[in-house]
Amino acid sequence: MVQAPQRTAFSGPALIRLLARLTDVDVPESSQSLSDRLSQWLGWTDAIALSSALSNAPPGVAAGARAFSEAEESECARVRASLADAIAGDSVFAVARRRGSAAQALPHGAPADAPVDYAVFRQRYLSLQQSMETGIGTLRARLRAMLAARTPAMARLAVVDAVMERALSERERNLLAAVPGLLKGHFERLRAAEQQTLADAEASGDAPTGEPVPPATPGAWLNTFRKDMQSVLLAELDVRLQPVEGLLAALRTC
Predict the structure, then answer these.
(1) Which residues in the chain come in under a pLDDT of 70?
(2) Does 13 map to a domain?
(3) Is 19 inside a domain boundary?
(4) What are the contacts of 25-34 at 24+ separation with CB within 8 A?
(5) Which of 30, 68, 113, 141 has the most beta carbons within 10 angstroms of its beta carbon?
(6) Helix (H) or strand (E) holding 55
(7) Are 86 and 124 in contact, with CB atoms under 8 Å apart?
């Protein structure tokens, strides 16, 4: 099986560590602080909006706001579980149930030597990204509205979160949309490695002498790739949920 190139050990979210391990992109870890990087990402209109949110008087708080309860906690857990289940249960990422079954490892109905089109995986990845963006965006707005109805300090935090979401959502979308393209190289390396292993096994069997080559199951590489892509999607889900976790933590203190 192909081995991913050794890269500089990254700290940070599991998504970054996974991509560093699976891809052939060797990008040095940034030496800039978070505040320095954010200053480059925020446009001047975003900076003005953020400054206003931090310096102006917080919005008024309406009386009789509904208290944060287990219902909201349960809804957040439900959204997370629903998105994770959609990733884990997607038919495109389904792996063979029995080891050594080439027919199960390859797309349904395809012969063992049929070419596999990466575009199918890319399109499904993008579709699941859209589901995550929609579901998490709705949940984030709901929690922000609850936060804004608590105290003046929490209302200010809700405004800051809204400003940051508007300022960074396009950049986040563009960066995450590039992930399927990065994984294409991993897909091709796994396939090429299996083809080479099978060719070596065939050549070794024809030769009168030679080193024995470990047997390989045609199509097994695809199971490995499917599991890796699922792992990346689940790690991305965790990154996308971080703002929600922050809002939840703030609501629990109210």
Answers:
(1) 1-11, 25-30, 60-68, 96-115, 205-218
(2) no
(3) no
(4) 25/182
(5) 68
(6) helix 44-55
(7) no
